[in-house]
Amino acid sequence: MRRGLPLSLLATILTITLVVAVGGLTNAIIEVYPDGWCTVSIRVPVQDPIVEIPLLGHPTLLTVVDEEGLPLNYTLKGDRILVDAEAADEINISYETQSLTYKRGLVWSLNVSTTSYLLVSVRLIGDPDVVGLSKIPISIREGSSYLELTLEPPFTLDYVYTSPPREGRGEGNNLSYYLLALLPALAIALFILNKGSRSKKFELDSTDMRILDSLAEGEKSLSTIREELSLPKTTAWRRVRRLEGKGLVEVERTRSGSLIRLSKLGRDVLKNRGSSR
Predict the structure, then answer these.
(1) Which of 39, 102, 180, 186 has its CA 20 to 30 A from that of 196?
(2) Is the CB of residue 187 less than 8 Å from the CB of residue 71?
(3) 174: buried, middle or exposed (CB in 10 Å: 19+, 13-18, 0-12)?
């Protein structure tokens, strides 16, 4: 253990291996770097089409993806995020924040004030010494270059670096950080290129056409389309998202699920197919 952690505290610690879920949320992980920046990772199993998830700190470089790494639509609402997860089995949230830590002299403090999570795991990167804890950890684990403590929030954790750490996250981590910062710009560029190269000829297979034919009857929910066409949940949603990307359908996302309808372009595709027969 670190020299800064009192021996009397060590004697009272029980190391417990837990798998915890409360309100559908597994425990969050916070990686704390020597410059005060934190990487927060949250994994949530999906039980409802719209999932509201509390955040730790103010997010930057926020990514929200499903279990396959595909992006999910979301809306930020103060210290919470509202995720459209109708086709997902799991939500994976990752972001950077500097709002969880502050420094007084040589002592850094991490403050987690939320009560929305039963447990939060804090991974201190760079071999610091823990000099203060507001409560006893549930578990403690040491790696070659980090110390990980799992605590029940809310809590405050104080730590110091007895030897000067490398500034920030080191060259490799800084490179990753800059690459993450470029992702939004790259995504916009790819979108523009894709939009500019879109032709009037759409590569639609029989499943795509069955979905369009079904929507010709009127607006429908995703669950109705799945039942009518006997499609798996994930397949149906991937197809609908692809058709939405081609501009053939419009998707209205509501708290009770997504409503899908043909766009003007989608109606034209069906009309042209009928006239060409």
Answers:
(1) 180
(2) no
(3) middle
Residue 28 and residue 135 in one domain: yes
Residue 259: predicted pLDDT: 84
261, 137: one domain: no
Q: Could you tell me if 272 and 213 lie in one domain? A: yes
Domain co-membership, 224 together with 90 = no
Residue among 15, 11, 4, 83 at smallest CA distance from 47: 83
Q: In degrees to the nearest 10, what's the CA dihedral of 270, 272, 274, 277?
A: -140
CATH number for the domain that contains residue 228: 1.10.10.10
Q: Are residues 234 and 135 in the same domain?
A: no
Counting the structural domains of the chain, the total is 3
